[in-house]
């Protein structure tokens, strides 16, 4: 029986590319929203979910960290996908013909230099793959799409200009979600642990909570805060650390964190991706 992996977007989206690269034996399942992708895994329509969380240029993907804690799913892997942006057009289209490019609001700033140099105006699309589909269904060579080469293949478009992103190391990080956690694996490049927490309402609680990681030599690679439930006093933190909950140093750090918090939830334990340790 073929297993499926859900992603947000239409066929040809960068999430689709991530699925093909990271889980080539799974059938990609396109979903309109991140909520739909998560629900597909929760209901059993898919075994895994490919969820974009941050881009090296744009920053974190909005609202995703609000969805993860309530998803009921667990992070089981991370994937770093090199984002190559291409200008796609109808077959036979030349660069000089393109006057407008369709693309998602996140991708437009990532190739702003190229578009400006070539006098190409932009128009926001709900999805990069949808932009490619819309161009393919039209008959106007002056309109192009900013999308992946996978989208070009799917919708029968030409790559008018290849790899037009302004930053050569433009990368998006995805988390792979599953219904069940897996704490037994150990990765070649180390392990990552993700969790959320809320600190107690006492002076310097966050400072003191973080002290345990420093004194025990645990590297915290991410700490992000966001409001929950519209309450300015209910700040929640999403954190990622290097290490496994079974490591003694992590156990000691988490024990100290627990003392200064009123809520901790483990989101996932997973191997660090090889590309995490790459340097420019």
From TrEMBL:
This one is known as prephenate dehydratase
Record carries keyword Hydrolase = no
Q: Where is this site: Essential for prephenate dehydratase activity?
A: 172
Name a single GO cellular component. cytoplasm
Please list the GO biological process terms of this entry: L-phenylalanine biosynthetic process
- Source species, please? Salibaculum griseiflavum
Q: SUPFAM superfamilies from the entry?
A: ACT-like, Periplasmic binding protein-like II
Tell me where in this chain the ACT domain is found. 194-271
Annotated PROSITE patterns: ACT (PS51671), PREPHENATE_DEHYDR_1 (PS00857), PREPHENATE_DEHYDR_3 (PS51171)
User: Which positions fall inside the Prephenate dehydratase domain?
Assistant: 4-179
């Amino acid at each position: 029986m073929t297993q499926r992996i859900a992603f947000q977007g239409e066929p040809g989206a960068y999430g689709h590319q991530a699925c093909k690269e990271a889980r080539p034996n799974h059938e990609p399942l396109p979903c309109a929203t991140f909520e739909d992708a998560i629900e597909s895994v929760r209901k059993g329509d898919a075994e895994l979910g490919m969820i974009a969380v941050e881009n090296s240029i744009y920053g974190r993907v909005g609202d995703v960290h609000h969805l993860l804690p309530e998803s009921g799913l667990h992070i089981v892997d991370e994937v770093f996908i090199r984002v190559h942006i291409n200008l796609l057009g109808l077959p036979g289209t030349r660069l000089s013909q393109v006057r407008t490019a369709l693309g998602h609001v996140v991708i437009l700033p990532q190739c702003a230099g190229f578009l400006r140099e070539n006098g190409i105006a932009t128009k926001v699309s709900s999805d990069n793959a949808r932009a490619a589909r819309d161009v393919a269904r039209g008959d106007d060579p002056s309109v192009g799409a900013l999308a992946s080469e996978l989208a070009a293949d799917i919708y029968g478009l030409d790559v008018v200009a290849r790899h037009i992103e302004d930053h050569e190391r433009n990368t998006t990080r995805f988390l792979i979600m599953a219904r069940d956690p897996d704490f037994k694996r150990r990765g070649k490049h180390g392990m990552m642990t993700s969790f959320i927490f809320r600190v107690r309402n006492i002076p310097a609680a966050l400072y003191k909570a973080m002290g345990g990681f420093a004194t025990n030599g645990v590297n915290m690679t991410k700490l992000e805060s966001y409001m929950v439930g519209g309450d300015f006093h209910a700040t929640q933190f999403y954190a990622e650390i290097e290490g496994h909950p079974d490591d003694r140093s992590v156990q000691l750090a988490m024990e100290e964190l627990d003392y200064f918090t009123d809520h901790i939830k483990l989101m996932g334990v997973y191997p660090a991706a090889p590309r995490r340790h790459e340097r420019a």
